[in-house]
Amino acid sequence: MPKEVYFAGQVRKDFIDLGWFFHKLPDSIRSEATRFNPIKLFDAFVLNRGMFSAIEFKMVKGTSFPFSQVRDSQVQALLEIEKAGGVSYLFLNHRHNGNAVIVWRIKKYIELREIWTQLGRKSIPLQTYPAPWTILERIKKPARWDLQPIVEEIENEYGR
Quick check: helix, strand or coil at residue 51? Predict the structure, then answer.
């Protein structure tokens, strides 16, 4: 099982345990034999009491996040969700300090991408401080990710 799928499954369980509906969009079949390959705009969405959020999961190796890992079509789709009143995130499976996950709102990712592009970079260094992202800590018992900062951000966005 690819690590991204395993990671999405962990986050899925954590959202469901908090009372959120979670749906992972199926991956499209890619081959030369298929005539039509639909573009998957993001990996999953969550919904709770009318609060909608789209999530794109990414695996990160090394100390920076390459811009090439997020397609322009994904950025556009996540921005459209924000314009329509939803909340959009990138969840990066990069164990910051050994035991956490990095989360960006799509608007923050775009802002950082523009800054680092102007500096001639093709990636965002993940050791940047102060950290321009939310860190999800790992809770040991039960083993799960602490999604409370994200849930609070979504609730604040919806005025709850």
Answer: strand
What angle (nearest 5°) sits at the alpha carbon of residue 29, between those of residues 104 and 14? 40
| Element (DSSP H or E) covering residue 151 | helix 148-157
**Contact 57/91 with Cβ under 8 angstroms?**
yes
- Residue 101's DSSP bridge partners are 136
In tens, the pLDDT along 64-81 reads 888 888 999 999 999 999
**Tell me: the pLDDT tens digits for 105-159?**
999 889 888 988 899 989 888 776 556 678 888 887 676 788 999 999 999 988 8
SS3 4: helix
User: 116-125: long-range contacts at Cβ-Cβ below 8 A with a sequence spacing of 24 or more?
Assistant: 116/67, 117/67, 121/64, 122/66, 122/67, 122/68, 123/64, 123/65, 123/66, 123/67, 124/64, 124/65, 124/67, 125/63, 125/64
